[in-house]
Specification:
The chain has 193 residues and is of the alpha+beta class. The chain is built from 4 helices and 10 strands. It has one domain: Alpha-Beta Complex (Cyclic Phosphodiesterase, Chain: A), CATH 3.90.1140. Strands 2-1-7-8 form a 4-stranded antiparallel beta sheet, with helices on one face. A 4-stranded antiparallel beta sheet has the order 5-4-3-6, sandwiched between helices. A two-stranded antiparallel sheet has the order 9-10. This is 2'-5' RNA ligase family protein. It comes from Streptomyces viridiviolaceus.
């Protein structure tokens, strides 16, 4: 059967996703057009292709228990010198992302795995490029902001060409409640607004 490399992430919606992808390409990141703009929940993970139905079933359960939550990107950060990455920070929604990624990687599920680094939700805008371009990305996006309501996540597969393609979207169970409706409610492990 063979193996496939998959990832699970929250897509940054339009127009923000395309805008950040174009900026990433403009900084000289050759991988920009092969990686949809996202917040990672499960980093690239190799699985047996025969395990995909179990993975999809698990993700369906995680999504069914989830509730929409607000996301806001604001400002930049970097993992340098540990890792050559510049990113836009998740200013609102980081707790929801962290809980969601724990559920995706739950020890009892088919995607259980340890992470190389502690989980830190972010949107990569430069990776593995020269330091001057990394500095430019960090400075030019320092005032960047975007916000939306996260209503689910998606499963992606990396092709032999290195391009990530969406296999399936998973919507959270429950209706979107506007943020102005009041204080957050805790349901199903994620904050609902």
């Amino acid at each position: 059967m063979g193996t496939v490399t998959i990832g699970v992430s929250i897509a940054v919606p339009e127009p923000h996703g395309s805008e950040l992808q174009q900026l990433r390409a403009g900084f000289g990141d050759a991988a920009a057009h092969g990686i949809p703009t996202h917040v990672t929940l499960l980093p690239p993970t190799e699985v047996d292709s025969g395990d995909l139905p179990a993975v999809e079933g698990h993700l369906t359960e995680v999504a069914a228990a989830g509730r929409p939550f607000p996301m806001r990107l604001a400002g930049t950060g970097t993992f340098r010198p540990l890792s050559p990455v510049v990113f836009v920070q998740v200013a609102t929604g980081a707790e929801g992302c962290a809980l969601l990624q724990q559920q995706v990687r739950d020890a009892s599920g088919p995607l259980a795995r340890e992470l190389q680094f502690p989980y830190h939700p972010h949107v990569t805008v430069a990776h593995g490029i020269d330091d001057a371009a990394m500095d430019r990305a960090y400075e030019e996006l320092a005032d960047y902001e975007a916000e939306w309501i996260c209503t689910g996540f998606a499963l992606y597969e990396q092709g032999a060409d290195g391009v990530w393609r969406k296999l399936r979207e998973y919507a959270f169970g429950g209706a979107v409640v506007p943020p102005q409706a009041g204080a957050p409610l805790e349901r199903g492990g994620l904050t609902a607004y």
